[in-house]
Amino acid sequence: MDLSSVLYLALPLSVLALTILYLSHRRPGPAKQPNSAARAGSFYELMKNSHRILDWTAELLAASPTGTVTTFMGVVTSNPSNVEHILKNRFDNYPKGDRSTTILADFLGRGIFNSDGDHWKLQRKTASLEFNTKTIRTFVLHNIRREVAGCLLPILAAAAAAGEVLDLQDLLERLAFDNVCKVAFNEDPGRLAGDTDQGREFANAFEEATNLVVQRYRHPFLFSWKLQRFLGIGSEKLLKEKIATVHRFAMRVVRAKKRAEARGLGDDLLSRFIAEADYSDEFLRDIIISFVLAGRDTTSATLTWFFWLISTRPDVKNRIMDEIRSVRSKKQKPAEATFTLDEVRNMDYLHAALSETLRLYPPVPLQTRECAADDVLPDGTKVSKGRPVMYSSFAMGRTERIWGKDCREFKPERWLENGVFQPKNPFRFPVFHAGPRMCLGKDMAYIQMKAVAATVMERFEVEVVDREKEREPDFTMILRVKGGLPVRVRERPAEGVLAA
Ligand code: HEM
User: Fold this and answer.
1) Binding-site annotation: residue ranges for heme
2) Which of 107, 181, 278, 326 is most solvent-facing, going by the fewest CB within 10 Å?
3) Atom of ligand 1 nearest to the CA of 180
4) Cα 225 to the center of its chain, rounded Å
5) Domains of the chain in sequence order
6) Spacing, Cα 298 to ligand 1 middle (Å)
7) Ligand 1 atom closest to Cα of 123?
8) Measured in angstroms, how far is the CA atom of residue 147 from the centroid of ligand 1?
């Protein structure tokens, strides 16, 4: 790049930097919102609180009478009526929007996770049919049982015998990655069983590409990361390489599956899309990358928080153990190392404990949409065209107005009536999103999480090292446990359970 181009690009950058400085030091004017959203959170405050963005927004929202605030970042709400308006009633006015889809486009293309309008509708229609069949549920459970019995339990047994400390979060992430790849395209990258070269390269590139692409959100203007990409410098250089590795792997999978079509397709999601219509290779590549991203760290993060939370609550742990024993006692044939679909379904208390974990530590804690045309939210907040509008599941899970005075307590009982699990209104609990774009993998996620939790707990006592220590969330794309979760495991004496 020559000097004149550098100067040409440097000038607008300086203007942007000065604008940011001006905005951050400007005295806030009188609030323009009529009766609702407090105007809070200047650029300066945002920077000051950037390391605790979730707690900071939760505090702002709790202090606002309507549960909505207007910040430098856009409108943020924890008000269920607003959430219903954005996600359902005025769905078409709140797409993901250009800013977000442009940021993720190099990586995700126009896969279901990163598209709006007709392109999204087409994928959603096919995917909804495929996610809701009994065949896919059975396929999901079959894979998770295989992976748990064949890989996870032996690793835990070896650690128990050696008295070794394990990072449970890391193990669960490996398990979730292998599992979502099996469900998406029926290949196991072997993250848990001992990496294959190709699998390791794909998994590492996927992980790094996700972390690097998220860095683009930290740029206040699209222009700044685009400039880096154009110059091929810094994190953008590395990102390009990682994305190329992921795309190469995914393309190989798509082409191999298409070639195998004549010999019969499988039950995985890619096979089902191929059988459905003559989609292009790129279209299918984008779809499977979206599925892997969607189903990867969400379940492992939830399980990690779950194991930490129950380690601080022996009463909850005991009730889960009682439920597991009771489900087992109804079995006619000798118990296996893992559970059937019906057994997993019948665990209401475990379902409640996982939902309570999701309430306090939602894997996707803050969601953003972009306002397509000027609008007024049900609480009176005005939103202008192009503004980001966010809802915070994290703040909502900790809101007294929604969950009562004990909202910060871990209390699975709040989800049960006469021992039976009662789902909550998704606009008050939008952890899986809500409305037409609600998470497609919700049932699948519960099946996986329940199967893993019950199988591990039945066979092992999991002791979290330093369990009383408060765990800090680490929020990049998914709300993980900062620093992982070190645990020791001990084998329980067998209660009629066969070895894996
Ligand atoms: C605890 C586990 C999970 C949670 C909390 C969760 C949460 C969410 C949320 C909040 C969204 C909306 C994201 C957005 O629009 O930006 C979403 C979408 C989605 N999820 Fe999940 N998810 C979970 C597990 C899974 C799993 C295991 C899969 C399976 C592959 C999956 C597949 C999807 C898909 C395909 C979408 C896109 C739906 C669309 O845009 O129409 N999810 N999920």
Assistant:
1) 439
2) 278
3) 30
4) 24
5) 107-491 (1.10.630.10)
6) 8
7) 41
8) 22
